[in-house]
Amino acid sequence: MKKTALTLLLFFVCAFNLIAQQRPQYTQYVFNNYLLNPAVSGIENYTDFRAGYRSQWTGLEGAPVTSYMSVNAPIGYNFIEGDATSMSSGSDNPLSRSFTRNYMAAEPHHGVGLIAIGDRAGPITQTSIAGTYAYHLGLTSKLNLSVGVMAGVNRISLDLSQVTLENPNDPAIVNGNTSQFKPDLGIGVWAYSGNYYVGASVQQLLKQTISFGDASLYNQGKTVPHYFLTAGMKVFLDEDITLLPSFLVKMVNPAPLSYDINLKLAFSNKLWVGGSYRHNDSKSAMAGINISSVINVGYAYDFTSSNLRTVSNGSHEIVLAILFNNRYKVSSSQRSW
Known about the structure:
This protein is mainly beta. It contains three helices and 17 strands.
């Protein structure tokens, strides 16, 4: 059923001013932390391409649907050609106890990347394109620190074909700007070693007013900064069986603090399974396979635990990773996981 102007207004206020999902939500953030933190740009010594698709709250009309593509790569001959941890052997498991024991910090290098995201919720679509840059520096023989920046543009549009107005001349929409571009800026920092990482970032640093009608009358739609704090570590159950706990804390004013807790179990760098808990929202089951040194695939299903469970069949998320120019033939990430 098409939305009335009142329904649209309520949706818009919720989506852009209250506890809304202004930025897309990802269950498999550990499979691509680059989406949340530009400091991850160029962290591996190959070109990392990822494509993802997420259908949230399936069964609910107008529920969010997100798709994205991301690519990032390192710049720096000493890192790409002479990375000490990569020189050991292509057959080594980056998640094994022995690999971590021999881990050395990466050579100082740069990282660049590009992210394109499409996010649709009801009649509102947001398309984001951003470039990223990071610099990685070794603090100790086993610890790196990187800082990164993201800059881009967001296009926010309203599909009037999905809107039925009770008042055809409603100034909230009629003769308004149904497609608009807004600049975007984000920063991040990332510390990583052989068996842990800690990162912090902020997205949407530039606050923007979003209005599809007369901005002097309808100016309650606001974009707000999104803050992320994440960390993860390796716990070795056996030489090639590794437990990977991690968490993500999200802070978006004035919404309540939100957090995700993830637990992955990796087997010989070939297969992993896991679970996730998102506070007051969902529980998730995840699995992935490293098909080769070129292709990895991950899938997650969210079991909705909020009040939306009465109308939603849960959420699906799939991620495809392609590792280009993977000269040492590793089948999974060495410095992020």
